[in-house]
Amino acid sequence: MLKNYNIAIYPGTFEFFHDGHKSIINKAMKLFEIIYIVVSNNENKNSSHIEIRYNNIINSNFVKNNKNIKVIKNEGLTIDILNMLNCYYIIRGVRSIEDFKYEMSLYDSYKQISVDFEIIYFLSDESMRKISSSSILRSNKNEN
Question: Which of 29, 85, 91, 121 falls 20 to 30 Å from 21 in CA-CA distance?
Answer without folding.
Answer: 85
